[in-house]
Write a structure and sequence with these properties.
The protein is an alpha/beta fold. It has two domains: 33-66 and 344-449, Aspartate Aminotransferase, domain 1 (Alpha-Beta Complex), CATH 3.90.1150.10; 71-341, Type I PLP-dependent aspartate aminotransferase-like (Major domain) (Aspartate Aminotransferase, domain 2, 3-Layer(aba) Sandwich). The chain has helices at 5-16, 24-27, 56-59, 68-78, 92-104, 118-135, 156-160, 165-168, 192-211, 237-247, 300-304, 326-341, 344-359, 398-409, 430-449; strands spanning 35-39, 42-45, 50-53, 109-115, 143-147, 179-181, 215-220, 224-225, 231-232, 251-255, 279-282, 294-299, 368-374, 377-385, 390-391, 411-412, 415-416, 419-422. A hairpin with a 2-residue loop joins β13 (368-374) and β14 (377-385). α5 runs parallel beside α12 (326-341) and α9 (192-211) packs parallel to α10. The protein starts with a helix and ends in a 5-residue tail after the last helix. The mean pLDDT is 96.
């Protein structure tokens, strides 16, 4: 019996491919979704069905898919050189991109160290912070502070400063321990936003006062904590955390992998509170969502601790084969040019306000506990009981069911437990956002109320 193209690919997927963050027994029990091409804010599967990209292909697409200017940048660079190492030499796009990143980054971040993913960028920041203190003769400063429910990637160092039990506990015997303080989650705090903020600052202040001499750095997802369910910080919290770190001689690492490049309404989330960290990690939207390039930006002070005579052995011995890949750097430059030409940041602000108004209809639904939003990062938390805030049990798979219903209606996204995520490409038009939010609303009502919209 002849098989279709889809059936052939589905069989190969089940036979050979191990998908990330995916329980393969579940995945293999149904027909897989296999994407073949993209156009604008839509993706098309091998069977010809179209879907809105409602989560920017895991939070990284900026300008849409198959963008002529970005395609051209890669093609032109491909005609020159596809890759050349940065170990002991440089390449043109890597240099030009580094200059551009320094100009748009928070003040003081003047050095750029490339890598190939957010996790490796975090790994670099952790190692830089650790070696920084050693190079300066502070041998005791070697531990890190992270925040409850933090996610910074899946490499060993990044997991060591992660605090989501579902993702991280199985690896705990392999990891170095970190100090954990609460993230200011207003919804689950009886006193609301200000009380949640004060609880975080009190915990940080106490820890720094008692252990500051042994702490190398605090790592934080600024303004929005992503994988924990799109948790938005109360105003002023990040700025006060940064001040406490300065007072106690502790480095601040800002993980802007998810929040960077316009996602929160500013180029970087740190910009929202005029915070300049000592180290900042960027990725995802850096190349417009095209190629895997990340970077760790450092201050001159951090850089200078490694700048020494060869005999002192203060070199930062870290690198990746594809560090500063010319193709990736070229498309990143083209992406940043589009930010300027299309005034994308200003557009995000108006689009975010439009989405916020559209989602008002969900606020009174009995199974919508909270809608959390910063720019075009939105998380809609579904609860069994709105009054008591009783959550759905994990076996209910309410988030999975809502996103699968959205797929049936023509939009792709992924849940974070009971939180339905909506993170569309920044270039989405209001018409496209209107269609996507309509699907989102219908999907949530369908799975929580059996389809009643009244």
């Amino acid at each position: 019996m002849l098989t279709t193209h889809f059936e052939h690919l589905a069989a190969l997927n089940k036979a050979y491919l191990w998908n990330p963050f995916t329980q393969m027994k579940d995945y293999n029990s149904t027909d897989p979704l296999i994407i073949e091409r993209g156009e604008g804010v839509k993706l098309f599967d091998v069977q010809g069905r179209a879907y809105y990209d409602g989560f920017s292909s895991v939070w990284l697409n900026v300008h849409g898919h198959n963008v002529p200017e970005l395609n051209q940048a890669i093609t032109e660079q491909l005609g020159r050189v596809a890759h050349s190492t940065l170990l002991g030499m440089a390449n043109v796009p890597a240099i030009e991109l580094a200059e551009k990143l320094v100009k748009i980054a928070p003040n003081g971040l003047n050095k750029v160290f490339y890598s190939d993913s957010g996790a490796t960028g975090v790994e670099i920041a952790i190692k830089m912070a650790f070696q920084y203190w050693r190079n300066r003769g502070h041998q005791t400063k070697k531990s890190f502070i992270t925040m409850n429910q933090a996610y910074h990637g899946d490499t060993i160092g990044a997991v060591s400063v992660g605090a989501i039990p579902l993702y991280h506990d199985v690896f705990r015997p392999m990891l170095f321990p970190s100090h954990v303080i609460p993230y200011p989650y207003a919804y689950r705090h009886k006193g609301g936003a200000e009380a949640a903020k004060e609880a975080t600052l009190t915990a940080l202040r106490s820890l720094l006062e008692s252990h500051g001499d042994e702490i190398a750095a605090l790592i934080v997802e600024p303004i929005v904590q992503g994988a924990s369910g799109i948790i938005v910080m109360p105003p002023g919290c990040l700025r006060e955390m940064a001040n406490l770190c300065r007072q106690h001689n502790v480095l601040l690492i800002a993980d802007e992998v998810a929040t960077g490049f316009g996602r929160t309404g500013a180029m970087f989330a740190c910009d929202l509170e005029e915070v300049s960290p000592d180290l900042m990690v960027i990725g995802k939207g850096l190349t417009g969502g095209y190629l895997p390039v990340a970077a760790t930006l450092a201050t001159d002070e951090v850089y200078d601790a490694f700048y020494a005579d060869y005999e002192e052995q203060k070199t930062f011995f870290h690198g990746h084969s594809f560090t500063g890949n010319p193709l990736g750097c070229a498309v990143a430059l083209a992406s940043l040019k589009l930010f300027e030409e299309r005034d994308l940041l200003e557009g995000v602000k108006s689009k975010a306000a439009f989405v916020e108004r559209k989602l008002e209809v969900l606020k009174e639904r009995k199974h919508v506990g909270e809608i959390r939003q910063q720019g075009l990062m939105i998380g809609i938390e579904l609860v069994r009981n709105k009054e008591s805030r009783e959550p759905y049990d994990w076996v209910d798979r309410i988030g999975v069911r809502a996103t699968m219903r959205a797929r049936e209606l023509g939009m792709l996204t992924r849940p974070l437990g009971n939180v339905v995520v909506f993170i569309p490409p920044l270039a989405s038009t209001e018409e496209e956002l209107n269609a996507m939010v309509d699907i989102l609303i219908e999907s949530i009502i369908d799975v929580t109320e059996g389809g009643t919209s009244a």
